[in-house]
Amino acid sequence: MYPLFYITSLLHILTITSATVVPNWVNFDLPVADDDQLPFIAAYTPPFEPPAISLKTRPTTVYRPKSLDAHEHARLRSLLHAETEPIEWEQMVVSGPDVEDRHTLSQLARMTANAYQLPGHKNWYDLDPSWNPNASFPFGWDNDEDGFRGHVFTSRDNSTIVLSIKGTTLQGPTSKKDKLNDNLLFSCCCARVDFSWMFSTVCDCYSWSALHQRCDDTCLSKALIQDSLFYSTGVKLVKDLRFLYPFADIWLVGHSLGGSLASLLGSTFGLPAVAFEAPGERMAANRLHLPLPPPIGDSSRPPVPVTHVYHNADPVPQGACTGVASPCAQAGYALETRCHLGKSIVYDTVQKLGWHVDLRKHVIKEVILEVLDLEDGWPDEDGNEWDVPAAREEEDCVDCFKWEFGDYKKDKQG
Fold first, then answer.
1. How far apart are CA 162 and CA 400, in angstroms?
2. What DSSP element (H or E) covers 284?
3. Is 211 helix (H, G, I), strand (E, B) or coil?
4. Could you tell me the CA-to-CA distances from 96 to 107, 164, 168, 347 in Å, in that order?
5. Active-site hit among 106, 159, 256, 326
6. What is the pLDDT of residues 90-104, one digit of tens each?
7. Confidence label for 57 from pLDDT (cuts 50, 70 and 90)
8. 98, 309 contact by CB (below 8 A)
9. What is the pTM of this model?
10. 256 part of the active site
């Protein structure tokens, strides 16, 4: 087992090997159907044999803050003092995952599933030979109290690093912190579903009103300044990975809570992220006061390199597992948000597979085997079939429309 400090122990290796510059991508002269797709190649292919293609990549435009310190300073100034601070953004093109390729999504989904256990476990998925199992490592498993867990996958040539973040575990050593992060990030107001939940909330931001459901914005923002919040832990980890692999393309993936965290971190650093069956994190980004690049063109949304992948029989990413009688509420979760950052690929499993909306369809194994590995095409509204449905922005999406948000608390939390 690799402990969390395994990451820092790699620093010595990095200083020894830093004389060798690792390219951001390796492009072999192979026939590719699309000019904008770059094959992701296994580095140790025997000579005179065609290299095996694993994941397909494509040029991805990202916007990154020129200074991460300035980005964090602006976020905290907005959060603590309600003051804005301009951010300078750099536009660049990196090698990102081709989210239109079925096999690529299937491999990334397997990485998200592997974040839930250590290598050798019966539920561990084997990956393509392009990935180096000897250089890949788990993180967060050395301390049950940390909660933030997952796995770092490295390609054999170190050109691509994938950070896979674990989602919610219902029963286990991380369950308590998983639930806290879920209810802080994805509930409308401190996980207050109704009056019966008043002793189960995760913060005290509800403002009583006889006619309205009111929640204090300032109180909510301050509630997110906690050491137990996984976002802050993730920021530190991504900084470590960027230091360890300065020439590599870093991708973020995750399932459920892990997917939303991958999206928030990808938006922070301008790194490609793919989230599977994740709750809506757009409201969480606002409450974290996360500075995002301004919209471009006709879009009204910030151009973050995030792709959400989910199907319409899963109530979690649709914000449909709500209400006192819902299975989420019965288990103590208030997963009420549905609006996502970036673009979303939505599989119509209700129509094509005849599925009913069911929380049991949220499990990543179901998504991999029954949806992503399905070789049949997925029809669009015009009747054309595609290996992967088109990714689209979620326009006109509103979270928590039954709530009123403002400065309602007379006694502000210090």
1. 33
2. helix 282-287
3. coil
4. 14, 15, 26, 22
5. 256
6. 999 999 999 999 999
7. very high
8. no
9. 0.84
10. yes
Q: Which of 111-115, 229-233, 273-277 has the lowest mean pLDDT?
A: 229-233
pLDDT (tens digit per residue) in 144-158: 667 899 999 999 988
- Token pair belonging to 299: 């879009």
151-165 core/surface letters (b: 16 or more CB in 10 A; e: else):
bbbbbbbbbbbbbbb
Residue 316 pLDDT > 80, yes or no? Answer: yes
- Does residue 224 carry a pLDDT above 70? yes
Candidates 89, 35, 85; CA nearest to 64 is 89
Q: Which two tokens stand for residue 140?
A: 């967060």
With contact defined as beta carbons under 8 Å apart, do 230 and 281 qualify?
Answer: no
Q: What is the 3-state secondary structure (H, E, C) of 85-129?
A: CCCCEEEEEEEEECCCCHHHHHHHHHHHHHCCCCCCCCCCCCCCC
Q: At what angle do helices 257-269 and 230-244 cross, to 10 degrees?
A: 50
- Supply the mean pLDDT for the chain: 82
Q: Which helix (H) or strand (E) holds 63?
A: strand 53-65
Of 6-20, 127-141, 178-192, where does mean pLDDT reach its minimum?
A: 6-20
Average pLDDT over residues 207-226: 74
Two tokens at 187? Answer: 């509930």
Q: Degrees (nearest 5) of the Cα angle 360, 366, 370?
A: 130
Per-residue tokens: 402: 């039954």
**DSSP state string for 334-376:** -------SSEEEEE-HHHHS-PPP-GGGGSHHHIIIIIIT--S
Cα–Cα distance measured from residue 220 to residue 51, given in angstroms and rounded to the nearest whole number: 52
Residue 347 exposed, middle or buried by CB count within 10 Å (0-12, 13-18, 19+): buried
Closest CA to 311 of 270, 358, 272, 246: 358
pLDDT in tens, 346-368: 999 999 999 999 999 999 999 99
Residue 90: closest CA among 59, 65, 57: 65
Identify residue 253 by its one-letter amino acid code. V
